[in-house]
Amino acid sequence: MKATEVLQLYEAGRRDFSGESLRGQSFKGKNLSDADFTKADIRSADFTNTNLTRAKFSQVKAGLCLYYLVVLLTGIWILAAVSGFFIAFIASPVEFAFTSTNIANRALGQVVLLVWLVYFVTTLFKGIVSGAFAVTVAGAFALIFFPAEAIAGAGSVAVAVAGVGAGSVAISAATAVAGPVAMIVTAIFTLVGAASNKGVLDNGIIFAITIISALLSIYIGCRAISTDDRDVWIRAFTIAFASVGSTSFCGAILLEADFSKAQLKNSDFRRAQLVRTHWRDARELNWVRPGDTYLKSLKVQELLITGNGQGGSFDYVLDLRGINLQGANLIGVDFTGSVLSDSNLQGANLTSASLISATLNRVNFQNAEFSNAKLVQAQLDQANLTGAILTGAYIADWNITTRTQLNGIRCDYVFMRLPHSGTLELNHRRKHDDWNKTVAEGEFSDFIAPMVETLDLYHNQAVDLRAVAISFHNLRQQYPDANLNIVSMEKRGKHREKLLLRAEASPQSDLPQLHRHYFEYHSYLLTLPSQALQALLLEKDREAQRLAHLLNTAIDQPAQTFISQYQNKGDITVSDQGSNASKYNLSNAQFASGFAGTVQGDQVGGTINNKTTETISLAEATAEIQNLLKQLEASNHMATEEEQTAFLSALIPPTMREQLIGLLKAAGSAAIEEVPYGTVLRALVKGWQRPNG
């Protein structure tokens, strides 16, 4: 059936073209959404940039039509014969090493033999590219000691190396085009081409060198098609070569298209939109031209074909967007750090799977099994978890939003953190807290709702609190409509080296965008030298400085130290409930206007109030200031006077400033000189007294 006829019938409303012969037809740039091509012959058909949304290609026969197959095989066999002829060039000068009585010729033969041996061994173990590099190095050394001989032998060595490379490509290409039979024929052409060179059959040495080189060429070609990493470029090149004139889906829209049980050898899928495309039981998918799609991974291809990824590791295989694993067996699979946005995992069994830090936005997880799965720090904006089983799942710091569908979740309990590595921790954080109580039907969404409206900023490496403060301050400035307010901060990790900062956001906020913007800017700040970061902090307004010092004081200092610092600013209670996490609730803290709100949690709780009417003495005030500066020196012993002043200015509330100014004025300059850090105090008061200070 001609393409014009198909398109006319399609426009007339026909969608069923199953079993039709469409060989060599072009549908380039057309709309054939919902068309049914089941069992059709689409060899050499062109679907470039075609809209094939929901199209059915089940059991089709794609690839090369007979015409292109003959043309390509003819070219391959010619290349094989030529490569064999070139291979024999190395043998003639090698003979001189054993038979020539001329010293110069014998040296020439020895140099060429040495270079050939270096090339042979390197290529055998490291690949043909490494072999060619080794020839260059060996030739350079030979040029130093035997310049004339090296120059004379360079041509024959170069020709022979090119012959081995061409033969390897020919062997691989033949397999890619027409399979094992074509490969055998190509190998014969290579050997015949080598033997046809004059003198090869007349001399045993020449014959041996030639045949060994030809066999090396054949071996490299076979190795390349077996996906050996040493010669992966040969396989990539030959697949690209074999796709010339083959079925093309280049740039096509294949949203939810069905290729189940299809014969797809040599098909071109470069730049195709493979969103929720079906591949179950597809044949020879390993011979398609994948471009940058997820099909470039042979391991992913196997998963798509079989639907069985049990125990497999796909961690940090970053771009798996749009993959279709509906109903797949993914028990214990590792998708840590992978991007699976817009994918279909409906009904998949993800029991004990690791999805830590995975990007799962807009994924269809309907009725999926997540029992004991690790969803820690997973991104789930607009994901559909309707009817999913989450019993025993680990959901610490997972990023769900108001657009995440949680209807009909089946769950008895969840865990709020992972157990420590290498331990049998039975009582890690379980919800419900009562191990005899389970989540009632329909209760899960209500239980999880309070966590949905927060922006969770998890820092999984050593934390520079200055960068955290500046980044959050910048985020508030860039997105004022988000109405961001920090509600809690928590130290995580075995050594408390990690930080979770949680902030309230307005319901309409795009949390993934906020999260991305924050960490992009935070990553930039971490590239700055410490001095530059400190200078940037000092340039910011009082809000950023206050936040930095609050974080530093509340998080980095022991609870008792923190209490002593703020004993005159409110009532503080302490509750120590664990050694591996320190949590601080900063609900409604208004950093722009000072410290106001609640600070409570595993170690510190109560109120920090910047309004105090308590009268203090100069000795009490200076003692508290000294205590603060000592803590600054503990974390930054090189702090300048300017930095010390900024540190105090950010921490001391306005009401205390007024008292300090009065006390220091009354004491006079002489008294200030005798006080530790007197110069800092003078600078501090001077700055406060400035009109814009």
Overview features:
693 residues, mainly alpha, Pectate Lyase C-like, 5 domains, 4-stranded antiparallel beta sheet, 3-stranded antiparallel beta sheet
Structural account:
The chain has helices spanning 3-11, 66-87, 91-99, 103-126, 128-145, 147-178, 180-195, 204-225, 232-242, 298-306, 444-448, 465-478, 511-526, 530-539, 542-556, 559-565, 618-635, 641-651, 654-674, 678-689; strands at residues 414-415, 430-431, 454-459, 485-492, 498-504, 572-573, 582-585, 596-598, 605-609. It has 693 residues and is mainly α. It folds into five domains: 1-62 and 246-301, Pectate Lyase C-like, CATH 2.160.20; 66-239, no CATH class; 309-451; 454-609, no CATH class; 620-689, no CATH class. Helix 3 crosses helix 4 and helix 3 (91-99) packs across helix 8 (204-225).
Please give a quick description of this structure.
The protein is mainly alpha-helical.
Give the overall form. Answer: flat
Low-pLDDT sequence parts: 557-613
How many discrete domains?
Answer: 5
Strand content: 5-15%
Structural class: mainly alpha
Number of strands: 9
* Terminus-to-terminus distance: 83 Å
Give the H and E element order: HHHHHHHHHHEEHEHEEHHHHEEEEHHHH
Query: What is the average per-residue confidence, as pLDDT, rounded to a whole number?
Result: 78
Fraction of residues in H or I helices = 40-55%
| Number of helical stretches of at least 4 residues | 20
Strand order of the largest sheet: 3-5-4-7
Q: Give Rg in angstroms.
A: 36 Å
Largest sheet data:
4 strands, antiparallel
